[in-house]
């Protein structure tokens, strides 16, 4: 599914991926010349911000499980002429790097997709140098727009094809995020919460954006007639939320920064 959305990923609707990708790099306080691993790098929202930060003597490697995402990021690296970054297909739970290979490991809006989260975080710690830094972002509590959509999806669940459900965690609270990093052996864990409002110009842009995000999996599970009814109901649902400038989305995001202990 992520390979199918790759060409439009982060390109439809407000640019929240690029905004929070830059913020993750800033929160991590990455210096020039650092060697950085960007896990689940997608189309490169974090990767390109990190590559700019580390400068020509630094290096950023982005990995993603979805071949289409890697292909998209690689095309953009080539198009922009970025010489200190590369993208490759890899499983975060089985990193093909030697121990202590990186100064920083970054992961933007992806930990909650990992079925083997504990394994992935142990791999992150393994490839970090002593006192290396991991910095991650996750979504906090949903605003009204996404809460309404979640409730509508639950109402339609009996009419959807069964979907494979991984044993994942939401990681949408500071306590839960701190817990998983602590259990993986990271120390000096700091959690930062931020809010930023983005605005979709209308409901059509919002609907098209759903097809470029993880929501696509749910939409594809509906028969065409069910999908059409769902769309009508979704548009009716969001009418009270609209403003003169469009459809607002108040995004709440958690950042976590932690350190690998001395070995």
Can you describe this structure?
It contains ten helices and seven strands. By secondary structure, the chain is α/β, with parallel strands linked by helices. Strand 4 (102-108), helix 5 and strand 5 form a beta-alpha-beta unit. The longest helix is centred in the C-terminal third of the chain and has 15 residues, at 224-238. A seven-stranded mixed β-sheet has the order 3-2-1-4-5-7-6, with helices on both faces. It has a domain at 2-142 and 167-199 and 250-259: Vaccinia Virus protein VP39 (Rossmann fold), CATH 3.40.50. It has helices at residues 2-5, 16-28, 45-54, 67-80, 117-127, 144-156, 174-183, 203-210, 215-220, 224-238, and strands spanning 35-39, 59-64, 85-89, 102-108, 128-139, 187-200, 247-259. Helix 6 packs antiparallel against helix 10. The N and C termini lie far apart (39 Å).
